[in-house]
Amino acid sequence: MATVTVVDLTHLNCSEHDICLEKRIRTFCANTENGSQETIFITVLQDNSTGTDRFLRNCIRETCVGLHNSQQVLCKSSLCASMYSFKQAIDKKEVADVKIITSTHGREMFQVYQELLFTSAYTFEYLIEFDNLCCSLGDPTITCTQIAEVKREVDTFLQHLPAVKGDITIIRSPLISDYFAHGFTTRIGGISYINTLSSLNLFCNPRRKDSRAAVSENLRRLGQQAGFQPHQFNLIKCNHANDVWVMGKPAPDSYDGMVTNQAGVVIAAPGADCMPLLFTDPVAKAIGVAHAGWKGTLTGIAMAIVNAMVSEFGSRPENIVCVIGPSVGPCCFTLEQHSATEFCAIHPDCVRHMESPTPYVDIRLATRVLLERGGLKQEHIENIQIPNETSSTLCTSCQPELFFSHVRDGVNFGTQIGYVWIKEESNQ
C-alpha cells in the first residue's frame, strides 16, 4: 500500500529560520533511503513572501539531489491551507497512509489539523526526528487557546472556499403548508470534492474521507440558504428500524424517526436511495421525519411516525401530509426474492419480475399503500418532483448530476437530506 511522507518545515518566528529549515531538510535526507518509492510532500507555513518559498525549493533541490523520491512542495499562506492542499493531493492519488516527519511540538499541532480535516479512513504515523536541532525558538507545548484558534482558522478557511458544483438547490413541495419550512437537498452547492461525495454531502461517516469540518461547512451553507442555524439542526441516527424519538423525551441510541411540536427546531432525515419522509400536520401543528429504507419500510417506520404524532400531539391521520423525498426508484432497486416477497404481500404492484432471483421493488409505492391503510388521504401523500420537470419520479440512482446514491456509487456514497421545522410565530 502506498504511503505519502510529509516533512514538516513549519517554523515561524524563529530568528534562525533559514538555518533551521536547512537542518530539517538535511536531517530528513540523511534518514531517508535512496530510491524509495514513497511520494514526499514537504509542507511549510510561510509569511506570504516569495523569498521563503524560493529558498526552500533551492535548498531541497540541492540537499536532496541523491534521492529519487517523487517530491512536491506545498508552500501556502497557512498550515491549514497547506494541510488542505495536501489532503486534496493524496485524495487525488487515492492514498490514505500518511507518515509525518516532525518534532514533538509539530506532532501536537498536526494532530489538531488531522482531527479537523481528516477521518479515520486515513492512517497517520508520526516520526519525531527534529527535536534535537538546537533551535533558539524552542518547542512550546500546544495550549487550549491555540487549539481553539486552529478550529477557528479551519472554519474560516472552509467558509471562503468556492462551491464545487454551482449553487445550493432546494426542492420543495406545494403540499406542505406555509406554516412549516421544509426542503429536500440535492448534491449541488457544497465544498466536498471527492467524486462520490461531491459536493453538498451532509453526513460524516468516519470510514469515508469527507471530514466533519467539511460536512459542518456544507450544513452551514445549507442553513444560510434555507433559513436556519446549525445549532437548530437535528439529524436522525439511523439503524434501518422503526424507533421514533419524541423530542423532549430521552433519545434512544438510534432512531429512524423524529417528531416534535416545538417551533424553531429543525429535524432532518438522511437519504442516499433510502426515502427521507417529511410529515406535517397543520391542524395539530406537529411535524415528523423518517429515514425509510427497504428494511424500515417493512418494519413500519412510516406509520410509526403517524402513530407518534397521534399519541403525542393529538394529530388525526386524515390531517397529516407526507412527502416522500428523492429515493431509488423501481427502475434501479432490486432485492433478493425472499425480501421482495414481503413487498409483494403489501401490494403486488410493488414488485416487478417476481420470478427473477432479484426482482425490482418500488419502496415508494409500498410506503404510500401503508400510509393510506393507516388513514392518510391519498391526496395528502406526494412523491417529490422538481417543478416544471416532466419526470414523475426523482430516482437517486438514475440522476447522478443531482443526487447521491448507494446503489450507484457503492459504500463511499454521500448523503442528501429532507428537513422540516415549524416556523416561529413572527415568521409565519
Automatic annotation (TrEMBL):
Q: Which InterPro entries match?
A: Cu_polyphenol_OxRdtase, Cu_polyphenol_OxRdtase_sf, Cytotoxic_necrot_fac-like_cat
Q: Which reaction does it catalyse?
A: guanosine + phosphate = alpha-D-ribose 1-phosphate + guanine; adenosine + phosphate = alpha-D-ribose 1-phosphate + adenine; S-methyl-5'-thioadenosine + phosphate = 5-(methylsulfanyl)-alpha-D-ribose 1-phosphate + adenine; adenosine + H2O + H(+) = inosine + NH4(+)
Q: What is its EC number?
A: 2.4.2.1, 2.4.2.28, 3.5.4.4
Q: Which UniProt keywords apply?
A: Acetylation, Cytoplasm, Endoplasmic reticulum, Hydrolase, Immunity, Inflammatory response, Innate immunity, Metal-binding, Nucleus, Peroxisome, Phosphoprotein, Transferase, Zinc
Give a yes or no for keyword Magnesium in this entry: no
Which terms in the GO cellular component ontology are assigned? endoplasmic reticulum; nucleus; peroxisome
Protein name as it appears in the record: Purine nucleoside phosphorylase LACC1
